[in-house]
Amino acid sequence: MEQLKHECGIALVRLLKPIEYYVEKYGTWQHGLNKLYLLMEKQHNRGQEGAGAGCVSATAQPGTEYIFRERAMGSGAISEVFENIHHAIAQVSPDNAANLPFCGEAYMGHLRYSTTGRSGMAYVHPFLRRNQKRMRSLMLCGNFNMTNVNEIFDYLVKRGEHPRLYSDTFMLLEMLGGMLDESEKPDLSHILRETSRVWDGGYVICGITGTTEMFAMRDPCGIRPAFYYYDDEIAVVASERPVIQTVMNVDIDEVKELLPGEAFFVKADGEIRTEQIREPQNVKPCSFERIYFSRGSDRDIYQERKILGELLIPNVLKSIDNDLENTVFSFIPNTAEVAFYGMMEGLDKYSHKQKLPFRIRREKVAIKDIKLRTFITEGSTREDLAAHVYDITYGSIRPYDDNLVVIDDSIVRGTTLKQSIIKILDRLHPRKIVIVSSAPQIRYPDCYGIDMNRMDDFVAFRATIALLKERGMSHIIEDTYQKCKAQENLPKEQIVNHVKDIYNPFTADEISRKIAQILTPEGTQAEIEIVFQSIKDLHRACPNHTGDWYFSGNYPTAGGNRVVNEAFIKYIEKNKVHPTNA
User: Is this model's pTM higher than 0.90 or not?
Assistant: First the structure.
């Protein structure tokens, strides 16, 4: 119900034939540009704060431009980028086709969500590092977040460089570009192998040199996703598999997944290869990609989300005392629809097995109606308007008789639940409202590219802190803080996630009950219960994507433990300075 920001979406296109080939076969030199647009548009869900596109031409003559780039900010950035590109093309005479902007063999696209609070055009990919020698020019983009920016910064300073921005993207550009500068005959495999030794994080890094050499590399833990396809005409890379299937009109088996630590290369002459740059280690692909971020049109993700819904049935039945005859099922928001289908299919099988004499009811009880405008800033006014973001379907349940079960894909902060969803559902006068999350309780910050980095953003964390205080166990909070402080100056490899200690005294059910209490608005008539997926069942549904650090605190890289400890320290120190915020 709460939109999470996610960094980011990538798209690469490499034409493997001369431009004239595409003009003759497809009637336009813009074949590669058009494929880039489609790959980006089909991934607009991955970034709506900014977008950028770049192109490198292999045939541009000296004295003319050979690298082109266009970037824009805002939710309409993709359209703006391509409108500007086509406007620039229209300014060039058809008689001067050799100098057409964005006419080239190698294309790069990026969609951005900020997860660090940094915004502005300076942070919109692709980044560009120019050099008089083509082989040393580099355009870079990625879907990543590095946990050890300080170490990367120190690495560059020790090399005698002067980073102008404290940004992981900019510093990676300088690392890779610096090695290109030093190489007589640059070898991208060697450069990636040397520079990636310093990286700690989840990433897919993509680059194109001025000679149209192209690469895409995935982190050795496989945290962030990447897929590729190629034939004798074209090679493409994207963040999601069904995007490539749709844009290239190919079967699922023709699209390959870039493996953890592997890189995909296209040389200047069009030769394609993959190479293991870093050995896979602690492989834990992001489970949130499966629950929420990636498009549900992927064959495997669709099935996994249905299984996530079905696995919740035993706890749902328990929450309604098996009273299916007097229960209505629904979903909010639309991203939870597939899990809802899975739950209903499972309930239908259960009904058939139990020979129930009635049909299990399902209704569309809520519809997103309006988008609040940000100029509404006064607290009480804003909260009142928030209650009207969704509209309800009156008459969809029997007042005071029916339970209402509503499935969501995840519950992070709980703000929308408290300010809007529960209030409007209560207007239907159900006897009980059960909010079901297809994801487990989110307890720990992400540090690999999702906008979840503050401890007090998580309602599960706030509920746990409240329980510790209520039960006279506040010393655990202070003890955990001291343990985290004691590790501040340790190398990341020696840091332990001590924040787990605050959750250890309680069962998941105890925390769920407290969450329900915190999120129940004053004046609510219905009983409120919140049911979460278990981590065990998450792994049953998504067996190949076991990255569950948001739920378990088990980070796949050493930098993750440092990030969670720092987040807890910031929370405690903020509340010590401002006790009214505790």
Answer: yes
